[in-house]
Every structure is written in C-alpha cells, then in structure tokens.
Specification:
This protein has 1142 residues and is of the alpha+beta class. It contains 38 helices and 34 strands. A hairpin with a 2-residue loop joins strand 20 and strand 21. The two termini are 52 Å apart.
Length: 1142
C-alpha cells in the first residue's frame, strides 16, 4: 500500500479499498464461535491431537484392548479446563470493547479534568477549546508525560459540535499508509474545492490520552486489531521413543504368532483373513493405545497450574511491593517463569530504570564560579531559605546561600543566567490558583531548570504564541518571542530569540557543552577553560550537564534573517535542511554564561543488585540514549564499571574501519593469543544458525560504545567482532543508541549466543528492546505505562530484579525441572511395566493394570504429589539464594533438565519398572494365601503391581503430606471400585470384584510392597550419597551449611574523582517549539495577576558588580570551595547496607 484514500461519511467509497473497518475487536470469541474455534485451537496442540487419534483407534474393536473411557475422561477434563481458562481471558479482554460510529468518533469525558484514551489514529476536526486545540499526553507512545498540543484546521474547526454539519462533511483524505513513525505524518485534505496540508500536529495517534479538553471530534484514519495471540507449541521428543517400543512389541508379536500362535488356535481361533503379518499390524496400533501414558495429556494441565501458581507467588511477594508508589510486582504472563531462572544477559535502560528519572538542580557554574553542593535528598540542613520568593516551589532544595546572595546583589551574569533558564524552553505553565504554578515540561531536565530559575527569582508565569511572561525579582515583564530554534538530535541544542521590555534583541541558547563550545566567540576562551574544569568536577559526581550561552542581535541583521526563515519554513522542499542551515548562521559568536549540573539520582539498591547479578554470572548491558560521559559515570556509580577492572575499552570510531580496528585492539588486549581467524562459532560458517561459543578471559574488562560506532558494529561484516569483544567483557554500555539499535543488540545476542535474554526499561523507547528479548520487564516509573504494557513482568524498582531472578526465577526453574523429571519418571515406569508384561502375554497387547487405574493414575492418584512438588519445593530459602548467588548458574547451563538428565531419568524408570514387574511376579508365582488358596491370579498381580507403583513417590517433608493424601485417595477409590456393589451395578465395567480386600489382607503382599520400594530407592540413595561425598554441587554445599549465613559484609566506597564529562540527556524526539510560536496552543487569554513578590530593591552593602570575569564571591569565600559541614551525595560516597526489602 503506497497511499491511503478515504472520504468522510461515504461508506461505499471507503469499502471499495477493502480497508479494515472501524470496529475494535477486543475479544477472540463470541457465543457461537467459542466452541468450534477453541476446540480447533486446542487440537492444534500435538498432545491433544494425539489423544483424539487414540480415541478414534479405541472405537475399533480389532485394535483396542482398553475401554473408550480411559481416553475420553482425561481428554474431556483437559479440554474443559483449558476452555474455561480461555473463556475467562476473553471475557476480561471483552470488557474493554468499544466501537466507532461510522467514520467519526466523539470523545466527551464527563468532566474536563478526566482523561480518555484514543482507540484509533484520528484526524482532529474540532474541539471545545479556543482555536480548536486539544491537549494530549503521549506517555504510552514515546514515554513523555508532558502535555502536547494538537490543533484542527480552521476549515474543519468551523464544524464545531453541530451534528448536521458533521454529517454533511465530505472531505477526502489522501495520506501515507499505516507505519510506525510517530514523529511525522504526510497527507492532504480536499474539502470545498480546496486542498489543505496535513501534518503530525493535526493527528491524534492511537494510545494518546486526551487531557483538559471537554470534547473533540475526529475522522478515523487507521485502525488495527487490539488482540493478538502467540501460543507456544511444546515439542515433545518422546513420540519417537513410543514408536520404537511399539515396533519392538509388534515384531515380538509377529515372532510369537509365527512360532507359538498356532498352538493356541484350538481355543483362541483366528478370524478369517487374519495372518501373522496383519496381526502384527493390529498389535502395533494396540500398543500405541496402551503405551499412551508416555505422552500424558495431563502433563499440559499440570504445567499450566504450576506456572500459574508460581506467577501468583510473584504477585503476592510483599518484598517486591513498592509502598511509596503503591505498586506491587505483577506477572503479566504465566509461561515464562522457569526461563527467569536461566537468564544469562540482562539489557537495561538507564534513565528511569537504574535512575529515578527525577531531576534535581544541584550545581551550576556562572561566569567562572562554581555554586552548589550536593546533600542527601532528605537533608534540609543548611538549605537555602526561599521565603523571600512567594512563587518559589517549596519542594526545591539548594545548599549554597552564596548564589541567592549573588541574585539579590543583582550580579548581571547571574541574572542573565537565570533569565536564560526562564526564557529558553518549551515548558507550559498552568496556574489553577493564584501563586500555585504547575509546569508541563518536555523532559524532566527542562522542568528542573525552569523550576530552579523560578526559585531564584526568575519565575516563568505564562506564555502566548508571541510572548513569554516572567517575573524577575518581583517585577512582571513580558518578552516578545520572535523565534524558537528547536532541538533535534543533530543540533543537540535549542535557542530562543526574544525582544526584551527595553527593546533589545537577544538570542539565548542551551545545549550539550561540546556543541556550544563550537559556537562561542574567541573572547570566551579563558572562561571556557574554567567552565571546563567545573564540568569535569560535575562529571566526576555523575551529574548531567548543560552549557548556556547568549548573544545580542542587530535589528537589520535579524530582519533579514527572519525573512529567510519565513521562506524556509513554508518551503515544501527540504524544509528541515534549510532551517538547520539558517539556525547555524545565527547561532555563532555566542558569549558563554556557564553550565548547569542536574542529578538524576540512582534508585535504591541498584549497586547491590548489579553486584549480585554479576556474582550469579549474569552479564548486564546498559543501552541508553544518554551521552557517553553521563552513561559512563552512572556505570561507575552503580557498580557496573569498577575502578579495579583491568581496562574499560571505549569504542568511538567515526568510520567502519576505525570501529573494527578498535574492537580488534580490545580483543587482542583481552586475549593476546586470539587470531582474527580463530574459531568463534560452533559451525564452520557464520550463518544465523551458528552458535557463538563462550570464551574465558583472565581479568575483568568493560566496554563502552556510542551509537554512531554501534551502527557500524552492527553491520553484518562486523557484528561478530563486536559480539565477541562484548561477550568477553563483564559489563557493556551502549550510549546514544536509538530504540532500533537497542533491539538490534538484543537480537544479535539471541541469534548467536543462544542464551536466555531479559530486557528491562521504563519508557516507550524501550519497547522494541523489551519485545526483542526472551523476557521483558517493565518499570512503572515516570515515563508512562507503555513499557509495562509490553512486558512480561513489571514492578516499580530495579532492585526487585534480583529477587525476581535469584529467588522466583531460580525456584520456578528448579521446580519445573524436578516436576518434569518426576512426571516422566513415574509415567515411564508405569509404561515400561506394560512393555515387560508383553513378553509374558504373547505380545497380545493385554494391560497389566485395571482400566480404572489407568484412567485415574495421572488425573487423581499422582496429581497431588507432582503439583505439590512443582508449587512448594525449595532447595534453599530466599536468604540463602541471596547469600549464594552462584546457585543461579546451573539454570543458565540448563543442568537440571538437559539431555543427560532426561537419559538418567529414563534409565532410572527402566530399572524401577523391572523391579516393579519382576519382584511382584516372582513373589506371587508360587505363593498361597493363609487359608491355602491360590493367590497367583492376574487380578491380584495387577493390584499388587499398581500398589507398589503408588509408593514410588517424591518423598520430602512438604511433599509427604500430598503423597499420603494420594495414597489415602488411592485405597479409598480402589476398595470402592472393587466392591460388590459396583460389580452389581455394571459387571462389565468393574470386573475386579473382591480383589482389594482379598489381596491386601495378606502379609506377604505388604512385604512385597516394602521390598519393591526399598529396591527402587536404594540405588538412588547410594548414587546421591556418593555424588555428595565425591563431587558435591553448589546446591549440596549450601544445604550442608548448618549455620545461618552471616550478614552481607559492609563495604564503604569513597568518592571517585574523574575527568570524564557528563552531559545533558536530550530525548530522541524533536521538540515542539514550532507549536509554541504558531499560535495553535493557546487555551485562554491570560488574566492579569499581581506579581506576588516583595520588592527587595537594590542591596545597600555598597557592592558593585565587577564584570564578567571577576569571579567575585559576595560572601567573601574563596572560589570553588565547599562548605565543610555539608554531606556529600550518594554518588560520591555510599555504604552497602542490608535492605530489608531485598
């Protein structure tokens, strides 16, 4: 599809293109389609289809030696349970069903303060607000929580809410087809003989939330289905094993029929036309029915119950509950719990995931003087008193009084500094009550900067399309807004051009320090050197920095530039390129003002969590959009990078050759013996099916690579070099990466390492990474719920990840592996007895057990022990799991259910079946009852064998309760089914009349049960004893530790000084400065309001400013000194304290 065409109120025209209808389908089934559709989906599962084939075979008398109910009862039970689960899930989805009325949709919250989510991509036609504006929040799409403005075309805005006009509207839209680009839209509207241009500012995307707008009308453009299904098919490798057993028994039947069968024809005559060969054919299918317990249908139901139970454990875990935000952990899927115990690589976002994404203005450098100290977030000791400012934000805390004194003394550079912060932004202010300001910022950084200016006396109050109103030290002033030179990912800066109250033209600019430095006037060289020193100091503390500069403009030059700017902004050809060129022209010869330093605080417990994951041999890769210096310093702060590492490699090449050479240099430093042609993949070729082998390296290394270099490293010719180098490192940081690159890195590791991966993030830009990984975890933080909605698991803090993996993940994996081994063991043992019995019954496909025992064995008799083990088994408790993170390693290597473990399980089952068959067989062969009567009949043998089988259970302290319950159930049901009353009701269905009371009353029967149980258990106990003594595993070593593990050692980390530079983390999305200046965002005219300031006047201390480079301190303190009694931040010094929440 190259172009989408649609016409309002013309259904025939729209249907001719076969577009999707406007109905939203949130349910999979309806009342009539549920049964056939659900059964069709269930029989796509190979086990269900297999049992359906068995049911068909059982209705053929020449084949089946079992009654039909032995298959029908389990099959109906499994189908019913699964259908009930599917119906419940669909009802939940269906509760949110909604639909559109023809082509239009009206959104009308009951109150303007309420919100509503858009369910389709809409062309905005009209709204209740002035100038046909709407306010939307796009947190579910791009992670940004600030309000954005959209405006309808004036021609459609005239439609208002008049239903007759809307019904007569016949505009025709031509636009691009549906795509995944959120930042641009191209289309036209033809209405009334005129063609109008459509862009992203007129589109309401699905997933946006309507805010502060009473109603709006829109034309539906795109709509897609709201539900999807991705069932996982469990491939069962034991069907081949079943076929082999059936072939062996069928061949045995042929040999027996050929040599011995003729001797039995006198009393067992063959049907006409039945030869030995045909008998073999029928016997093969008969044994397919009898040996069906090798593939038990109840396995799937048991697995789902265990997964559901382990998911509830995550939901109910109070130690993963975040009280501050009232957010519990949530398992949004039940199918991945065991994979949580096999994670090898964790891919994490930084901002909002490792950090709080709550920006705090802590320090700044103004005219070569550094201001501010960092204190703990709860400390208000020596905090600046902002009571002189009635409009100050009471939540803002600053710890250097000299900056306030400089403001009060009217230092011109300080005033210009904060004036720039109050003017150069795209923040929107809302004042619900007098003096209570609320800022909606494009990024948390920008909100922190405007709030800082507000507290220091430069309050951003309101704005119109062509003016900005601020309060400067109690005086309300209005600046004419002439242009916004908006931010984008290439410019990495933004500027505003304003005319002050006195008529002076000024350009204010803020951006990344490396970019701003290129635009400075040569006279700023000395000030730049001093500011650089301050930036290095800020970087050593992990702060995010931003440089500020300004220049005065001439009237004539600006008038000429403004004309060219207007021409470029209305151009349809390379509009963005022309505007960027004009921005470059005017943003030159700037005068440096200084720099800001904002702290994005680490979340609680992040360093300890990363340290625990490293001990569990889980490699953490941080994929972030922040600049290199910021990401690197946060890496040191959270223990991802450590000073004791042998080396941290930085890859920042600007070409493919440079990047490849840097990667190979790093590889040769870690492995000097590594040659370029050394074997890295398991296959001879480096195709997608090859596996990258794990390599050992001496020492600990880290790797930092920026987004530009990563683009080359992910090319097909270089991706293996990058992967090999990165996998040899303990930690990897990819900075300045795009959401697509995040997903590509995850896919690269998945493709070649064949390891289980987990991605964790909090914003919409992490969604592609979360979906690419095997398991996605969403952090419900400051950036909306899109990451959570796309994830498999969610919680509020990164520190909960260690409990999710080291406790719940490891327990789930261990329980599932033990459950599968136990399940296959008991079923293989059950089935192998049939196999051995075939050699004693002429391979006639006669069963050993009673048909009712066959039917109820998996559904009733042994269901509780396996479920009890799968839900409650623990090898160690949670505290030991944290004390010994190495317990996690066996799961990464899949040691508990590998091919070797499966073979050992099958071998153990074979031995147990031999004991279960031949011991009772020999015990009853020449045995009589106490009264001298013969006890060696088929029914007594069957009862003794199945009773011995019931004692082959998993005996632990917790599981003993379930085993005893199963035994009680077995004996109760057995005595009931073998009673006289049941025989009188249905003689053909209950032939074992009196067998239970006659056989189980004999002492030799119980002695046989005891002997059989001992012989089955003895080899296992012996093997485990020798293994524990000679080659103990980490689990056995931990279990042998009798004493309670000591508390974690307390380790002090002192401040790390570094020359690495931090940087301002811009978002990937372009700003909305065009909207601010377009006149399309204004809600209502601002009403005049008093400034609310106490006029402080000019200080009377006799101080006069000394100029730009004087660096004078009004307090008399030496420049760049810190107050000795102010505590340092946790990024400089922290102690590892045991957290009870962990």
């Amino acid at each position: 599809e190259l172009e989408r065409k649609l016409r309002a109120n013309d259904r025939d025209f729209n249907l001719s293109f076969r577009y999707a209808t406007n109905a939203i389908k949130t349910s999979k089934y309806n009342l009539f389609s549920f049964l056939p559709l659900n059964l069709f989906e269930q029989f796509q599962r190979i086990a269900n289809a297999y049992f359906l084939v068995l049911l068909v075979l059982q209705v053929i008398p020449q084949i089946s030696s079992l009654s039909w109910f032995t298959t029908v009862v389990p099959l109906i039970l499994v189908l019913s349970v699964t259908a009930a689960k599917d119906a419940t899930d669909d009802i939940v989805r269906n509760s949110s069903r909604s639909s559109f009325r023809q082509s239009f949709r009206v959104y009308e919250p009951s109150s303007p303060c309420l919100s509503l989510d858009f369910q389709a991509d809409l062309l905005l036609l009209s709204s209740s607000e002035p100038l046909n504006l709407v306010y939307v929040e796009t947190a579910e799409l791009d992670g940004e929580t600030n309000l954005k403005v959209r405006q309808a075309l004036p021609v459609t805005g005239e439609l208002g809410e008049d239903m007759e006009k809307l019904a007569d509207f016949n505009g025709e839209v031509r636009c691009e087809p549906p795509n995944n680009r959120l930042d641009r839209f191209t289309g036209t509207l033809v209405f009334g003989g005129q063609k109008y241009s459509l862009d992203n500012e007129k589109i309401l995307l699905r997933g946006c939330t309507l805010r502060n707008t009473e109603w709006c009308f829109g034309l539906v453009l795109f709509q897609s289905s709201c539900w999807s299904s991705a069932p996982r098919r469990v491939q069962d490798p034991i069907f081949g094993f079943l076929a082999v057993m059936c072939v062996v028994l069928a061949i045995g039947n042929y040999i027996w029929e050929t040599k011995e069968g003729s001797g039995f024809t006198a009393f067992l005559p063959r049907d006409d036309g039945i030869s030995a060969g045909f008998s073999t054919f029928l016997t093969f299918w008969s044994y397919i029915i009898i040996l069906n317990t090798v593939v038990p249908i109840s396995l799937y139901v048991s697995v789902e119950i265990i997964r559901l139970g382990n998911s509830f454990y995550i939901d109910w875990d109070r130690k993963m509950y975040h009280a501050h935000s009232d957010t519990p952990a949530e398992a949004r899927t039940t199918t991945l719990n065991e994979e949580l115990g096999q994670i090898k690589y964790v891919f994490s976002d930084k901002t909002g995931t490792l950090t709080q994404n709550i920006m705090v203005f802590n320090k700044c450098s103004i005219n070569g003087k550094s201001y501010g100290t960092v204190a703990p977030p709860t400390s208000h000791r020596n905090a600046v008193d902002f009571s002189f400012n009635p409009l100050a934000d009471p939540r803002f805390v600053f710890h250097d009084r000299s900056l306030v004194e400089a403001v009060k003394l009217e230092n011109p550079e300080v005033h210009t500094f904060f004036r720039l912060l109050a003017l150069c932004h795209t923040v929107m202010a809302e004042e619900k009550t007098e003096g209570e300001l609320f800022y909606q910022a494009q990024s948390p950084d920008e909100g922190a900067l405007v709030t800082a200016a507000r507290n220091f006396g430069f309050v951003f109050r309101s704005r119109t399309p062509d003016s900005i109103c601020i309060v400067e030290m109690g005086k309300q002033l209005s600046y004419e807004l002439l242009a916004i030179l908006d931010f984008n990912n290439v410019r990495k800066r933004m500027s505003v051009i304003v005319r002050g109250p006195e008529g002076k033209l000024s350009l204010y600019c803020k951006g990344a320090d490396t970019i701003i430095y290129e635009k400075l006037h040569p006279s700023c060289r000395k000030l730049m050197d001093i500011t650089t020193e301050h930036l290095n100091e800020f970087a050593g503390e992990g702060l995010r920095t931003l440089a500020l500069a300004y220049k005065d403009l001439g009237e004539e030059d600006f008038r000429e530039w403004k004309q060219r700017h207007h021409e470029a902004s209305t151009s349809l050809d390379d509009r963005e390129g022309k505007l960027d060129q004009l921005y470059e022209e005017i943003e030159t010869d700037l005068l440096l003002l200084g720099a800001t330093a904002i702290e994005d605080k680490l979340q609680d417990g992040v360093p300890q969590t990363i340290e625990q994951l490293a001990k569990a041999d889980i490699k953490v890769w941080v994929l972030t959009g922040d600049k290199q210096e910021t990401a690197e310093n946060i890496g040191y702060s959270c223990n991802l990078l450590r000073e004791e590492m042998n080396e941290v490699f930085v890859v920042s090449g600007n070409s493919g050759d440079e990047v490849q050479q840097e990667l190979r240099n790093a590889l040769s430093s870690m492995k000097p013996e590594a040659a370029e042609n050394s074997v890295f993949l398991s296959d001879a070729t480096s195709g997608k099916g090859a596996k990258a082998e794990d390599e050992a390296v001496n020492g600990d290394y880290g790797l930092v690579i920026n987004g530009h270099s990563l683009a080359y490293a992910l090319e097909s010719s270089m991706e293996l070099d990058f992967l090999r180098t990165a996998c040899l490192c303990k930690a990897v940081i990819c900075c300045r990466v795009t959401p697509l690159q995040k997903a590509q890195v995850v896919e690269l590791v998945k493709t070649y390492k064949r390891a289980v991966t987990l991605a964790i993030g909090d914003g919409a830009n992490d969604v592609s990474m979360i979906k690419a990984a095997h398991i996605g975890v969403g952090i419900s933080g400051q950036e909306g719920m899109q990451a959570v909605l796309s994830s498999d698991y969610s919680f509020a803090q990164f520190r909960f990840l260690q409990r999710l993996l080291l406790v719940h993940g490891r327990w789930s994996y261990l329980r599932m592996c033990k459950f599968l081994r136990y399940f296959f063991y008991k079923n293989f043992t059950f089935t192998f007895v049939h196999f051995w019995f075939g050699f004693f019954c002429g391979f006639s496909a006669q069963t050993v057990y009673d048909e009712w025992f066959i039917t109820l064995y998996n559904l009733m008799y042994t269901a509780l022990p396996v479920l009890g083990m799968g839900l409650f088994d623990q090898d160690v408790n949670s505290s030991w799991s944290f004390q010994y993170p190495q317990l996690y390693v066996p799961g990464q290597r899949n040691l508990y259910f590998s091919k070797k473990a499966f073979f050992k399980c099958a071998l153990h089952s074979c031995y147990s079946s031999l004991v279960l068959f031949f011991i009772p067989y020999a015990a009853l062969q020449d045995t009589v009852r106490d009264d001298g009567k013969d006890v060696a009949d088929y029914q007594s043998f069957a009862l003794l064998t199945q009773t011995c089988l019931m004692f082959m259970s998993y005996w632990t302290a917790v599981n003993t309760f379930f085993v005893l319950g199963s035994l009680a159930m077995y004996f109760a049901v057995t005595f009931t089914l073998y009673s006289n009353g049941m025989f009188y009701i249905l003689p053909a269905a209950f032939p074992f009349i009196g067998t239970a009371r006659n056989s189980l009353s004999q002492p030799n029967v119980w002695l046989t049960v005891l002997l059989t149980s001992i012989l089955c258990v003895l080899p296992v106990v012996t093997y485990r004893f020798l293994l524990t003594q000679l080659c103990p595993t980490i689990n056995e070593k931990v279990r042998q530790a009798k004493a309670t593990p000591p508390p974690p050692s307390q380790r002090a980390r002192i401040r790390r000084t570094s020359s690495r530079r931090s940087g301002y983390a811009f978002s990937h999305a372009q700003g909305y400065g065009d909207l601010v200046t377009s006149g399309r965002y204004l809600r209502r005219p601002p009403m005049p309001r008093p400034s609310g300031f106490v006029n402080m006047g000019r200080a009377t201390t006799g101080f006069s400013p000394m100029g730009r480079s004087a660096g004078y301190s009004p307090t008399g303190r030496s420049q760049n000194t810190k107050a000795p009694d102010v505590e340092v931040t946790s990024l400089q010094m922290f102690r590892t304290i045991p957290d009870p929440a962990l």
